[in-house]
C-alpha cells in the first residue's frame, strides 16, 4: 500500500482535482513526516504548520467549488511546495541562513512566492540554506546542517540543501530552490533529484532583491522530470521591473508538455575535464558521465567528446562578482560581527572590487556567452552539453567548511563544483539528471546544458533518460 509521499506531485494534484485526495490530508501527512524526521535531516529553518493548514483548508474549498462548477485548477493546486529561506514570504521569518537576520520578518512576497500562492500551493515552511546562499554546502549557525538522506554523514549540498533534503527524504513532493553558482544542481546531484536551473530571466527575482549580475535564478527540485517541469511552469514568467526576460514558449505550450515529447536526434558534446585550472575529477564522476554518454548514444543521439580550455579569467570574474553580491546583502550594522567567516571574507573582498573591475567581469561573462552561442552551440552546432555535475561524490558534513581559512574554503568549494557556475555566467539553462549511483550507493549526478532559452529540449531529453533508466522508485532507507 503506497503512502501519500510515494505519489508524485502530479499524481497528488490529480487526486485533489478528482476529489480522491484532500489537500488537508496531504498537508497533515507531510507535517507529520517533518516533525518526525527533520531534526535529523536539517531540511527546514522555519516550519509553518499553522499557515500550511490554513492554505490547505482554502485549497480544499476551492477544489470542491471547481469540481462543482466544472472549472480547471492550476496544475499543482493543493500540493505542498516549500520555499527556500533566501526568498521572502510576507509574515514568515526570513533569515537567509544568517544570525544577523534571525528575527527578520518581511512584509511583502517575492514574485515567486506570489506565483506559488496564485497556483494554490501549500507552504510547509522555509528550507535550510547556508548564510546568504554563498557556499555549496548547507551549514549555518541557526539550524542543524542539511544532510543527504542517502548517507546522513554527508552534506545535502548547497545552497539549496534544505530543499533537496526535503524532497529526497519525502518531506515534500517538490520544492522551490535558487541557483547562483550551482545551488540547485549541486544538491540535486548529491540527493538524487532532478533539478532545473532555468535560463536567465525565465523566473523573476523581484521585487526587492533583483540580482543585477544575472547569475542567480529560482528553479524547481523534484523526483521526476514531469514534476519539475510543471513547477517551472508555475514559477516562470517575467514581471515588471525585471532586468532580464527569457524567450517565452510558443503560445499554448507548457514545459510540462515537453516532458512527454520525443526530443528527436540531438548532437551532444561530452565534457569530462573541468574548465577550471588544476581541478581533478573523481573517477565516479567521470564514469557516470561516460556511461550516460553511452546511454544517450544507444538512444540514437550523436555524442562527441569535447574539451574546453581551462580559463583563469572566468574564474577571477566569477569570484569578483560573487564577492560583490555577498557584500551587497543587506546586513544591519550591528549584525556584521554575527556573520560567518566565509561571509565576512567575501564581503571584505567584494568591498575592494572597483566599479571598473566589476564591469570588466560582467563583460567577461557576456563574451563567454557569445563565444558559446556563436562557436559551440549555434544552429547546426551542439544542441546539448553533457558533463559531470560535480567533481567528486557527496562530501561529508563539515568537509568543505574551513572557518579558520575562508580563502582556502572558497578554493575547495570551487574544486568541488567546477562545472556548474559556467552556466550561471552565460545564463544558459542546465539540469542535473539523477541517472547514476556509485558502488557505495551514493547518487552521482550528470549535467545537461542547452542553448539559452531552450529548457524545453533539456526537459524532453531528461524525460527520455528517465524512461530508459527510471530513478524515482529508488529511495533512501529513511523514506
Topology (SSEs and partners):
Blueprint: H1 9-18, H2 23-41, E1 44-47, H3 49-69, E2 83-84, H4 111-118, E3 125-127, H5 161-168, E4 174-179, H6 185-191, E5 194-197, E6 217-222, H7 225-235, H8 255-258, E7 267-271, H9 283-298, E8 302-306, H10 312-328, H11 341-351, H12 355-376, E9 384-388, H13 406-416, H14 421-426, E10 430-433, E11 446-450, H15 455-468
Parallel strand pairs: 2-3, 7-8, 7-9
Antiparallel strand pairs: 1-3, 4-6, 5-6, 5-10, 9-11, 10-11
Helix pairs in contact: 2-3, 5-6, 10-11, 10-12, 11-13
Overview features:
three-stranded mixed β-sheet, 39% helix, alpha/beta, eight-stranded mixed β-sheet, 10% strand, 479 residues
In short:
The protein is 39% helix and 10% strand. It is built from 15 helices and eleven strands.
What distance separates the N and C termini? 14 Å
* Percent strand: 5-15%
Mean pLDDT: 97
How many β-strand runs?
11
Which consecutive residue ranges, at least 5 long each, have pLDDT under 50? none
Lateral arrangement of strands in the main beta sheet: 4-6-5-10-11-9-7-8
Shape: globular
Strand pairing plus helix content: what structural class? alpha/beta
Any idea what the radius of gyration is?
21 Å
Instruction: Provide the succession of SSEs.
Output: HHEHEHEHEHEEHHEHEHHHEHHEEH
Percent of residues in helical segments? Answer: 25-40%
- Largest beta-sheet characterization: 8 strands, mixed
**Count of DSSP helices?**
15
Amino acid at each position: 500500500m503506497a503512502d501519500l509521499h510515494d505519489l508524485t506531485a502530479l499524481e497528488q494534484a490529480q487526486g485533489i482535482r478528482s476529489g480522491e485526495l484532500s489537500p488537508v490530508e496531504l498537508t497533515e501527512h507531510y507535517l507529520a513526516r517533518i516533525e518526525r524526521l527533520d531534526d535529523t535531516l536539517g531540511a527546514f529553518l522555519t516550519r509553518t504548520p499553522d499557515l500550511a493548514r490554513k492554505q490547505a483548508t482554502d485549497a480544499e474549498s476551492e477544489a470542491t467549488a471547481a469540481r462543482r462548477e466544472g472549472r480547471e485548477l492550476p496544475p499543482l493546486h493543493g500540493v505542498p511546495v516549500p520555499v527556500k529561506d533566501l526568498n521572502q514570504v510576507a509574515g514568515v521569518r526570513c533569515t537567509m541562513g544568517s544570525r544577523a537576520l534571525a528575527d527578520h520578518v518581511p512584509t511583502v512576497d517575492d514574485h515567486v512566492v506570489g506565483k506559488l500562492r496564485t497556483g494554490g500551493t501549500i507552504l510547509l515552511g522555509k528550507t535550510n540554506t547556508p548564510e546568504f546562499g554563498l557556499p555549496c554546502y548547507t551549514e549555518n549557525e541557526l539550524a542543524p546542517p542539511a544532510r543527504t538522506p542517502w548517507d546522513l554523514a554527508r552534506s545535502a549540498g548547497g545552497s539549496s540543501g534544505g530543499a533537496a533534503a526535503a524532497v529526497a527524504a519525502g518531506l515534500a513532493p517538490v520544492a522551490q530552490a535558487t541557483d547562483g553558482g550551482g545551488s540547485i544542481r549541486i544538491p540535486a546531484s548529491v540527493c538524487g533529484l532532478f533539478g532545473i536551473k532555468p535560463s536567465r530571466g525565465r523566473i523573476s527575482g523581484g521585487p526587492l532583491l533583483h540580482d543585477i549580475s544575472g547569475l542567480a535564478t529560482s528553479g524547481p527540485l523534484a523526483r521526476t522530470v514531469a514534476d519539475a517541469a510543471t513547477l517551472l511552469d508555475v514559477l516562470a514568467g517575467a514581471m515588471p521591473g525585471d532586468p532580464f526576460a527569457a524567450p517565452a514558449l510558443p503560445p499554448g505550450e507548457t514545459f510540462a508538455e515537453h516532458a512527454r515529447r520525443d526530443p528527436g536526434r540531438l548532437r551532444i558534446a561530452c565534457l569530462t575535464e573541468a574548465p577550471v585550472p588544476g581541478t581533478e575529477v573523481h573517477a565516479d564522476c567521470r564514469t557516470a558521465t561516460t556511461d550516460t554518454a553511452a546511454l544517450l548514444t544507444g538512444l540514437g543521439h550523436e555524442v562527441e567528446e569535447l574539451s574546453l580550455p581551462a580559463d583563469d579569467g572566468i574564474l577571477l570574474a566569477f569570484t569578483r562578482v560573487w564577492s560583490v553580491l555577498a557584500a551587497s546583502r543587506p546586513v544591519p550594522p550591528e549584525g556584521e560581527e554575527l556573520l560567518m567567516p566565509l561571509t565576512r571574507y567575501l564581503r571584505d573582498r567584494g568591498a575592494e572590487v572597483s566599479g571598473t573591475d566589476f564591469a570588466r567581469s560582467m563583460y567577461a561573462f557576456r563574451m563567454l556567452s557569445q563565444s558559446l552561442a556563436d562557436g559551440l552551440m549555434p544552429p547546426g552546432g551542439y544542441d546539448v552539453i553533457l558533463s559531470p555535475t560535480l567533481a567528486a561524490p557527496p562530501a561529508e558534513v563539515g568537509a568543505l567548511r574551513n572557518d579558520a581559512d575562508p580563502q582556502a574554503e572558497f578554493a575547495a568549494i570551487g574544486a568541488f563544483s567546477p562545472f556548474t557556475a559556467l552556466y550561471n555566467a552565460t545564463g544558459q539553462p542546465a539540469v542535473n539528471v539523477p541517472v547514476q549511483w556509485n558502488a557505495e550507493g551514493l547518487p552521482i549526478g550528470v549535467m545537461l546544458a542547452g542553448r539559452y532559452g531552450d529548457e524545453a529540449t533539456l526537459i524532453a531529453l531528461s524525460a527520455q533518460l528517465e524512461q530508459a533508466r527510471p530513478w524515482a522508485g529508488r529511495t533512501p532507507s529513511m523514506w
